[in-house]
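Appendix B. One record, verbatim.
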Amino acid sequence: MNTSTLTEQKAQDRRLGIILATCCLSLFVVGVDVTIVNIALPSIQRSFGASTAGLQWTIDGYTVVLASLLMLSGSLADRLGRRRVFQAGLALFTLGSLLCSLAPGLGWLVAFRMIQAVGGSMLNPVALAIIANTFTDPAKRARAMGVWGSVFGISLAVGPVLGGVLVGTVGWRAIFWVNVPVGLAAIALTQRFVPESRAPRPRRLDPIAQILIVVLLAGLTAGTIEGPQQGWTSPLIVTCYAAAAVVAVTMVEWRRREPLIDPRFFASAPFSGAALLAVAAFAALAGFLFLDTLYLQTARGYSAIEAGLLILPMAATNAMTARLSGRLVAAGRSRWALVIAGIAITAGSAVLITVGATAPVAELIVIYIVFGIGFGFVNPPISNTAVSGMPPAQAGVAASIASTCRQVGATLGVAVIGSMVAGHATAGFITASHGGWAVVCGCGLAVLLIGLASTSGWARATARRTRELLITEPEEGAVHGRHSAPVR
């Protein structure tokens, strides 16, 4: 290799490194947002006099919108241009963060969190597509994906400490300020270094299905959060659940040639298992963070900084064990990773059911480490299990559905567990939290059982049959299902 070629290669590697760093910035701010907002919840509650339901909406207002729009944003990026959509997402997330820091009341904060989420839906799935499109060499792409995966673990570890310091020294509004300079820098770097790309054959948009998803998630979430306050048999709550049920039935019957969610995917047990694993695992994580933040700062009286430092072992252990889990998955040992995950999540949360306000700090740290091990092991197998057995052309869609299920799990975790606490608030937080920890424990058991089922020989056989079905493209004008609609 001559000097000129070597120089060009170094310049190309430097450019690829900047592109990867730019994409990882978006993942970092979104990952930090997961834990940093939880740390600020007690402070937000005092500032606005918020109820438990208000705190739930502060988290779930974001995750409902994010879960609803992830797949649409991916489709728009394939069609309109990934760099363009990625920049729009960065701009909206940055603007939403700035508005959150200026929110005059809780309702405004929730609304601005939703703006954040619209931008957030355009970041991680689109950034992942940019990486896959830019890193054409398989070895370099694999290393880039490894870096990408580790950044999320790092962001979860940084969030509690950074959030605790900012809330404890400046105030809760500062947790949103940090996103502004990072977002502006990422926008500039994207414009300068990230190439534009589109899918050769973008999927058709499915606006009806998209609207149905929004109504389904909003109905379930609103009914669950507002149930304790409004009454489970009140007209509002009944309407929310009825709308969600009607939409669920409609989506099962809704047919298109290229639907937003192809129901044939669920004939694969590994894919269905991955969707359920994502819901259960992220419901456990979101419920853990929601309950534990309130436990440390409300029941035990710790400051935000102290709470952040106590949660750090969980986040740090998660970051470390995620890499080990990735190696197990690469070696074809996904079942081992899921078994470890299920046992650890179950064990950690089961002990928390009995923990009181005076439990030794050392005991809490051990519990948090065990829980961190569990969640660290569960995340890598989810994406792998989702795409295993899928044709290459469908792998991206399958991974997007798994990502959506992660956010659905986070939404339901906060909604269900928060409502259980709110429904027993008169008994005191410690007693009221017991049911919530039991739900987290149940999620851990679900991870264990679903992990065993979705990695069995029977499950692999269903994946092979589904792959054969999906590889066989329907003829032009053909329709699927007994109530198929014409292709539009």
